[in-house]
């Protein structure tokens, strides 16, 4: 399962069925669990923990030190969950001490070629990163988000659940859950209706989210007034309550 031309540090811990292609380099303090396939020329540095049944394609760089001038060689980590597909030339950096020390990628994510996930990012589950999508440091990407090709996300921004970034979107603030964003700089373009339908959201829930979106973005209400209306809707529709909760938790502000 391990090609004789792979270079694996003696201190690395690989499950018995991990496959490693030729010329891959795996450093010390790397743990890789069962069923994971590492392609040729992949470089994995530690401390890094990789879960079960991942596929990491050729020339990816995983767990390298952060691209942050404040980093002084502190012991920081990268954690990758289970069932992820990480394609060619993807780069995922470890965390920094200032950011809590850890970069995390959850389960069942699809990360296409040339994507970059910077230090201290927190990526949830079942996301899609199309080619060349990039995250600056400290970004949060919540479950089921979709980032189209060449989309860029500014540091400390958050992408809410089931949001959708259009091709080339430049995001410099938070994108609320269920919202589509497009443009440079990115602005809201409605609710991600198709995505919600694919994930089994009922017609009634989608209609409630559309009402919440219109209340926030086109009612003419001040933000505090709009949030009051959203709270009323949220008593009956939990997804609207989540929409409101995300906005209240925003530090950078939401896209407008």
From TrEMBL:
Pathway membership: Glycolipid biosynthesis; lipid IV(A) biosynthesis; lipid IV(A) from (3R)-3-hydroxytetradecanoyl-[acyl-carrier-protein] and UDP-N-acetyl-alpha-D-glucosamine: step 1/6
Alphabetized SUPFAM superfamilies for the sequence: Trimeric LpxA-like enzymes (SSF51161)
Catalysed reaction equations from the record: a (3R)-hydroxyacyl-[ACP] + UDP-N-acetyl-alpha-D-glucosamine = a UDP-3-O-[(3R)-3-hydroxyacyl]-N-acetyl-alpha-D-glucosamine + holo-[ACP]
One BP term from GO: lipid A biosynthetic process
Major subcellular location class: cytoplasm
GO molecular function: acyl-[acyl-carrier-protein]-UDP-N-acetylglucosamine O-acyltransferase activity
EC code: 2.3.1.129
Record HAMAP family: LpxA
Chain's role: Involved in the biosynthesis of lipid A, a phosphorylated glycolipid that anchors the lipopolysaccharide to the outer membrane of the cell.
Protein known as: Acyl-[acyl-carrier-protein]--UDP-N-acetylglucosamine O-acyltransferase
Gene giving rise to this polypeptide: lpxA
